[in-house]
């Protein structure tokens, strides 16, 4: 079972930036898609962005133009660069890795955007 460890969550003011990291315990090219989701307490987990093993990306409309997902195969890590953060971006952010039909999740990292 792969271990996914997120880091980089913090409290920032609106307009600020953060970079989240998700380090995997095995080669990330074992997963055809890796991505980021977020969840606010009491609400459903929602899709943020994904990146394929070939480097293709996709984003939720709410974050397009502000967030950038990337991967570093040598470090077995994916990243989420978040710019121009808004209060509505406040959530726990989770890393996901897809292997066949299996979904693997990290433990989450808290992002709070508040003045």
Helix content: under 10%
Structural class: mainly beta
Q: List how many beta strands DSSP finds.
A: 11
What percent of residues are in strands?
over 45%
Low-confidence runs: none
Radius of gyration: 13 Å
Query: Which H/E pattern describes the elements?
Result: EEEEEEEEEEE
Query: Termini separation (Å)?
Result: 40 Å
Q: What general form does the structure show? A: globular
Any overview of this molecule?
This protein is mainly β and 115 residues long. It is 0% helix and 52% strand. The chain contains no helices and 11 strands. The protein has strands at residues 4-7, 11-12, 18-24, 33-39, 46-52, 57-59, 67-72, 77-82, 91-99, 102-105, 109-113. Strands 2, 4, 5, 6, 9, 10 and 11 form a 7-stranded mixed β-sheet that branches. The protein has a 4-stranded antiparallel β-sheet with strand order 1-3-8-7, with no helix packed on it. A hairpin with a 4-residue loop joins strand 5 and strand 6. It starts with a strand and ends with a strand. The model has no long low-confidence stretch (mean pLDDT 97).
What keywords describe this structure?
115 residues, four-stranded antiparallel β-sheet, seven-stranded mixed β-sheet, globular, 11 strands, mainly beta, 52% strand
């Amino acid at each position: 079972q792969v271990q996914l460890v997120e880091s980089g969550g913090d409290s920032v003011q609106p307009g600020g930036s953060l970079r989240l990291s998700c380090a995997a315990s095995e080669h990330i090219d074992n997963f055809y898609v890796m991505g980021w989701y977020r969840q606010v307490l009491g609400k459903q987990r929602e899709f943020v962005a994904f990146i394929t093993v070939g480097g293709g990306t996709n984003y939720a409309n709410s974050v397009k133009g502000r967030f950038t997902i990337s991967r570093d195969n040598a470090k077995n890590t994916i990243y989420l660069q978040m710019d121009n953060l808004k209060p509505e971006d406040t959530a726990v952010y989770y890393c996901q890795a897809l292997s066949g039909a299996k979904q693997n999740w990290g433990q989450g990292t808290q992002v709070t955007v508040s003045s």
